[in-house]
Amino acid sequence: MSPFSHARRRGRITFPAPPGAAALSIAAFTLAGCVDAGVAAQALATAPASIKATTYTLPPPAPELVNPTGHALRGEDLYGAGAFGASRSGGTRRHRGADYVAEPGELVRAPISGVVQRIGYAYRGDQRYRYVELSSEDLTRDVRVLYVGPLVELGALVRAGEPIGRAQDLSRRYPRGITNHVHVEMRENGALADPADMLPAASGQHAEIDA
After folding, report:
1. Phi/psi at 114 (5° precision)
2. What pLDDT sits at residue 24?
3. 30 falls in which pLDDT band (50, 70, 90)?
4. Domain 87-210 CATH superfamily
5. Would you give the distance in Å from CA 121 to the centre of its chain?
6. Integer Cα distance of 4 and 14 in angstroms
7. pLDDT (0 to 100) of residue 169
8. Which of 2, 11, 59, 167 has a 20 to 30 A CA-CA distance from 31?
9. Do 110 and 158 touch, CB atoms closer than 8 A?
10. What SS3 class is residue 101?
């Protein structure tokens, strides 16, 4: 007598459970009288709960360019104007950067994302005033920010908007009354560029970055 015929004579037929379907196997055994119904119910009750979808808000993307102080360009004072190309030394030379108004001691932000390539002195023979220079990772853009007490180290990777230093007090070098500021020089593919054409104007951008 075959096993199948023997099973029919005893009044039960056993069907193989689908692969990996533990809960279906328990149910099949219960119907066949092999597992107590209470045990099957307990097994199904302790099965892992389904994972619920959760929602969350992604942080805003980091800005590509940032106004270093969040303030406007320096206007005209006894020492000249702060715009790119403004007259210097009685017209014999032109301003090579743009000056952004800054209160002494306030945080100065990285205008671009990049690597700190240089930390130096703004004036030869005067160790009171410093600068921080950044180069973008693809080496197409360089920014030097003068009159900044550095808070970063040489070789550090800095994202746009992160602090690079604190604005220094220029009144000690320019006592007749200069508008305190940081000086920003920018090069695009090696050529001098007007930072005001690229960096955001005065706004609440710093508050948005800190939020």
Report:
1. 175, -170
2. 42
3. very low
4. Glucose Permease (Domain IIA) (2.70.70.10)
5. 28
6. 9
7. 98
8. 2
9. yes
10. strand
